[in-house]
Design goal:
The protein is an alpha/beta fold. About 35% of the residues lie in helices and about 15% in strands. The protein has two domains: about 350 residues, 3-Layer(aba) Sandwich (Rossmann fold); about 130 residues, no CATH class. The N terminus is likely disordered.
Length: about 550
């Protein structure tokens, strides 16, 4: 080997060795920004926060015939990550949004956020009950046409007058806490309200809808949530003012539903519902049975306030002859015997009423909708075994929702769609958010009466601050879960000087808690809500 060749070989060998030595260093520098050694990732002090899974939205296009006109629309199914109060990710909330396509300027297009209640219910009921562009196939009375049920176009959808967003509460539907997050931090009156407020803020930002007129539509406990949201959204963090709130089967004062000893209010507010139910099942004396239902219910209201409630308040001071007279009138308005009413101390809990009314036929009546009947193992019990009106629709809505979301909206997940989620224990403690005025705190959210949740004051405060906010209450005569007279009583106590009366409207339907499963009621509901939206956006 020549000297020059020998020197070249040495140089090549040294270069090769240098590459071998340097490669791990350079490789490490490329994979570890900042020069951190890779083994640090396994050290406890370097534990990373969970990163939310980003799932793409599923966007599909459809059309539906409403009021004789074709309405083209886009359906967006997906999840939004909501932040906790410390502004870190906390949960993903599943939604399906429907937006009308043939609208050029969405800035003036009303936007309605819809949710059911429970607490612990998904929003399957409102979503597929007819408010959205699809509904479960049922006959006019609300019986499923087949099992399992499918969906059909909803000719009475609100989509022609407003874009719709159906949202599931955390731990219901496909909504879940993020990995490592405790579900309990979202399971409560205030906690739940905060999560929904954050969802609404995120949605408005994500889809550029801040300039749209904004509405809430809550059903059952969803009305409680809507009242809470009226305050949370208007507070200093969000500053979101609503145009209107729809309270469908409302409960803002939980004392109206409580049959605890010492609380006479619930017996008074349930009485007109008992009258409607007995009238429907033809259990009243001929004189009352032959009357039109609205007129008969007005008599029941008058008796409840002027005679029945004063008798209850007198307690054991009520004279025997007075008790006899009240029992007789109660019997004429409820279809229950005088002896049964006297043995019940003139106080009939709802769970007893649904068992007693049709005991002679060995039937029970529904809680959510007293038009429907069920049959227990025997007719001797004090209360019923199950709610026949709930059982009637549960399987149909569940099957229809899972099939519709998976095959039509093309959105599937590995976890089950929780029709009812495990949100218990639910934290009913509620301290409303502070006023927008520094140093001023809203009135307490808990009622001193019966220790029951009371959120009507939050709504009153929101209406006082937001003078454009209007409310529409939808009431089913046959709703035994949230009786219509309870809603009327609650709003009679809202702003006692009567200054809000012209901003609150009531609608009535000859159906139950979910009045939209009754086709004539759905038709009327659509008309009422369309009128309300137009009124609230003037």
């Amino acid at each position: 080997m020549k000297p020059g060749q020998k020197n070249l070989s040495v140089i090549i060998m040294l270069s090769f060795l240098l590459v071998l030595i340097a490669t791990p260093i350079f490789s490490q520098a490329r994979t570890e920004p900042g020069g951190r050694p890779p083994e640090q990732e396994t050290r406890p002090e370097a534990k990373k926060l969970p990163v939310p899974e980003v799932r793409p939205f599923s966007v599909t296009r459809h059309q539906v015939m409403i009021d004789g006109k074709v309405v083209p629309y886009t359906a967006t199914a997906g999840e939004l990550t909501v932040l906790k109060q410390n502004e870190t990710p906390g949960a993903s909330m599943f939604f399906v949004a429907y937006t009308r396509d043939d609208v050029k300027d969405k800035s003036s297009r009303p936007l309605m956020f819809c949710f059911n209640g429970g607490p612990g219910s998904s929003t399957v009921w409102l979503h597929l009950g007819g408010v959205g562009p699809k509904r479960v196939a049922m006959d006019d009375e609300g019986y499923p046409l087949k099992t399992p049920a499918g969906v059909v176009d909803s000719e009475y959808s609100l989509l022609d007058v407003a874009d719709l967003v159906f949202v599931d509460a955390v731990s219901t539907g496909y909504s879940r806490p993020l990995p490592g997050e405790e579900g309990s931090q979202f399971h409560g009156v205030e906690e739940d309200g905060q999560a929904f407020a954050e969802f609404i803020r995120t949605f408005l930002t994500k889809f550029d809808r801040w300039s749209s007129p904004k509405f809430l539509l809550g059903e059952s406990y969803g009305t409680t949530r809507a009242a809470v949201l009226s305050g949370v959204l208007q507070n200093r963090t969000y500053g979101i003012y609503l145009n209107g709130i729809v309270l469908l089967s409302s409960v803002l004062d939980f004392a109206t539903l409580s049959f605890n000893p010492g609380n006479n209010l619930s017996y008074m507010v349930f009485l007109p519902h008992y009258t409607a139910t007995a009238w429907y099942h033809k259990k009243l004396p001929a004189a009352n049975q032959n009357k039109e239902l609205p007129a008969l219910l007005e008599e029941a209201r008058e008796f409840a306030v002027k005679e029945y409630m004063p008798a209850l308040l007198r307690g054991n001071l009520l004279k025997a002859e007075e008790a006899e007279a009240v029992a007789g009138k109660l019997s004429e308005l409820t279809g229950l015997s005088v002896d049964y009413l006297k043995n019940s101390n003139l106080r009939v809990r709802h769970d007893r009423f649904v068992k007693e009314l049709l005991r002679d036929r060995r039937l029970t009546v529904g809680r959510l909708d007293s038009r429907f009947t069920g049959r227990d193992a025997d007719a001797a019990g004090e209360s019923y075994e199950y709610d026949p009106s709930s059982a009637l629709i549960m399987g149909s809505f569940s099957a229809a929702l899972n099939n519709y979301v998976g095959t039509v909206l093309n959105y599937k997940k590995e976890v089950p769609y929780a029709i009812y989620g495990n949100v218990y224990p639910w934290n009913f403690n509620f301290q409303p958010a502070q006023s927008r005025v520094p140093g001023v705190t809203r009135a307490a959210g808990r009622s001193s009466r019966d220790g029951s949740l009371y959120v009507a004051e939050t709504l009153r405060q929101a209406m006082a601050e937001n003078t454009a906010l209007k409310v529409f209450c939808c009431n089913g005569y046959y709703d035994g879960a949230t009786p219509f007279f309870g809603t009327e009583y609650t709003f009679s106590q809202l702003m006692l000087d009567g200054s809000f009366k012209d901003r609150v409207r009531m609608g009535y339907y000859q159906a139950g808690h979910m009045m939209y499963i009754h086709k004539p009621s759905l038709k009327k509901l659509k008309s009422d809500l369309a009128s309300f939206i137009a009124w609230a956006t003037k």
